[in-house]
Write a structure and sequence with these properties.
The protein is built from eleven helices and twelve strands. It has 280 residues and is α/β, with parallel strands linked by helices. The chain folds into two domains: 206 residues, 2-enoyl-CoA Hydratase, Chain A, domain 1 (Alpha-Beta Complex); 47 residues, Lyase 2-enoyl-coa Hydratase, Chain  A, domain 2. Strands 3-4-5-7-9-12 form a six-stranded mixed sheet, sandwiched between helices. Strands 6-8-10-11 form a four-stranded mixed sheet. The longest helix is centred in the middle third of the chain and has 20 residues. The two termini are 32 Å apart.
Length: 280
């Protein structure tokens, strides 16, 4: 497969030439990953491989400080796994398809850079599971619905949905939402604590606002390493005993104390001026 992930060109596999299903581009310090398989941006193993590659590319790029995930078009962020694909593969493939998807979203969740899901349309099933692996979820008002309706297909949300939803809303509410298969508007998603914010405006205005929001976490506005370490401390610390979580916090803080940005931040505070961070 080609090493270039920065455009929308075709990539070569061992057996055929296929369209890239995740577009990758940079805007300043923000890497924008667009799920691109209209009309509903449903994901296959090929899309998950492309998403995995894009996440790794953003990880290794020292100029990227925020990762933003969105969907192509105006109607769907992502409608989840491609049902037609699931109907044609055997249980063995389905197991490893789910395993790789879990690994991909865990990699996204543990990447020490802030991840924002810009939910521009319907975000259901596996689409919501992708969004829940982000740190911040911002949706466009009245652009669609979200939820985990997999029970209607006789299955469970198998790309981390049962676990991440539980951590967001608690066990009882998570079980209720999944066993009823309820879908709801984005304002309700905010009330439940699944979504972070809802922005008004058309599709263009929405993305402009989300990008403005994302840029505040890039240098010189914020110390990107501190932002990333806060994220890692929360994501990793939440999964271990409290004493171990405090140890993670201390070690990440020690790394920041040695950074140029920490020196700049402390100096700027003493000198009563705005800090000029460089992500170093």
């Amino acid at each position: 497969m080609t090493d270039e992930r920065g455009d929308k060109k075709m990539a070569t596999t061992t057996s055929e030439t296929r369209k890239m299903l995740v577009d990758y581009r940079k805007d300043g310090g923000v890497a924008i990953l667009t799920l691109n398989d209209p009309p509903a941006n449903t994901y296959t193993h090929e899309m998950m491989r492309d998403l995995d590659d894009a996440i790794v590319k953003a990880r290794f790029d020292a100029e990227v400080h925020v990762i933003l995930i969105t969907g192509a078009g105006e109607k769907f962020f992502c409608a989840g796994a491609n049902i037609n694909m699931l109907q044609t593969v055997d249980p063995y493939f389905k197991y490893f398809f789910c395993l790789h998807a879990n690994e991909t979203l865990s990699r996204l969740e543990q990447t020490p850079k802030l991840v924002i899901a810009a939910i521009n349309g319907h975000c259901v099933g596996g689409g919501l599971e992708i969004a829940m692996a982000a740190d911040i979820r911002i949706a466009r008002r009245d652009a669609g619905k979200c939820g985990l309706p997999e029970v209607a297909l006789g299955v469970l949300p198998g790309t981390g949905g049962t676990q991440r939803l539980t951590r967001l809303v608690g066990k009882a509410k998570a079980i209720e939402l999944m066993v009823t298969g309820e879908t709801f508007d984005f304002a309700r998603g905010v009330e439940l604590g699944i979504l972070t914010s809802v922005y008004d405006g058309d599709a263009t205005q929405f993305m402009t606002k989300v990008m403005e929001y994302a840029r505040q976490f890039c240098p010189p506005n914020k110390a990107a390493k501190a932002v990333g370490n806060i994220k890692r401390s929360v994501q990793s610390g939440a999964e271990v005993p409290f004493s171990e979580a405090l140890a993670i916090e201390r070690e990440l803080q020690q790394l920041l104390f040695q950074s140029e940005d920490a020196k700049e931040g402390l100096t700027a505070y003493v000198e009563k001026r705005k800090a000029n961070f460089k992500a170093k």
